[in-house]
């Protein structure tokens, strides 16, 4: 099948929060699709993958917007005097203040080129969040993006937000906030460098390629810390950075924290027949705005059923779909000509990113969630020759569907030294208690990364057992239609 794809004091006391012991100081401050069949309540249905060709706070915000910092870099380390240049860093209150071409040039270079491009750090995605009212001051996400210039040339940008809560981050620090408040010190607002509402790994300091980009990176890292202290905030958090950025941040005093997600890896599969054992077909459908309205109703059904918060507005889906075109893949299920469920994905340079899922209210379709979110994503990745499917947050249940555990990262800068020490101890205990060592154990059990791993053969291609078994699993799982992020 061919598919065309056109975010002090020395005295102290002990505090127990959520079974964790803290030690704190006593005081401080055309479209193309693939299709397969499933059985709904009223007969046969069809599932398709679709491609779319307070005054104090106000004073603090004013201070931050006026923030600027300069540093000298050397464009030629062998000839420093003649190559001395000045870099200026400033804060902008909206991504619209930065030309999309300049932002995206930084994002492409930081990703490692178009072949590894991450769509979530694009100007189109982030501006859709702002323009739709999803990630704005009123929702606790005030944009404070950093901009680094040399003369008129933009060298780097950093997606940064002033947060008044900890929602929509997928790296949980609520107990830290509780500890601060119990101690009598405010935890919010705080700075967060991330993609709002999106647990997807990627670069956070977006640098243009240049012979002196390492100097720019370290200057921006220092500027982030300086801005946090200048703004009298408790902390700065960098969530889901790339592994390379993670190591650079932690070398500069940021506390390291790790997590687990489950990703599917394409081991050079040439087609999906051996993996999925499905009959595929092509449909050509012209999509209209009403289909985004349908998906928004699915999304709201999920958030309502799981007592969640609908972070994204209806306008976000329309704007994102309009701006990002064929980077959007929406898997939809229809029955009797009516859309009944959908799963939203974005297409990156080498990865398919699964994001949101939902279905009609008061409906139940056995196994449809797994089909739409996991198996259709695998099919699309193979057809598009993508290396990875990232299925979002949550879920050991993904292992038996071919998705294996990988490490995710976050970095945390706490201004107060005593709090920093206490939270560092918390992170160490958390890492040991939650069994982060599970990843190599699971990989060993499944035989992944070893040539001696148990395999079975389909035709001329060998597949690990956990992928082959998916056909059997499809007929035996229960519905999990309420999962928000796959």
TrEMBL record:
<dbReference type="Pfam" id="PF04339">
    <property type="entry name" value="FemAB_like"/>
</dbReference>
<dbReference type="InterPro" id="IPR016181">
    <property type="entry name" value="Acyl_CoA_acyltransferase"/>
</dbReference>
<protein>
    <submittedName>
        <fullName>Uncharacterized protein</fullName>
    </submittedName>
</protein>
<dbReference type="InterPro" id="IPR007434">
    <property type="entry name" value="FemAB-like"/>
</dbReference>
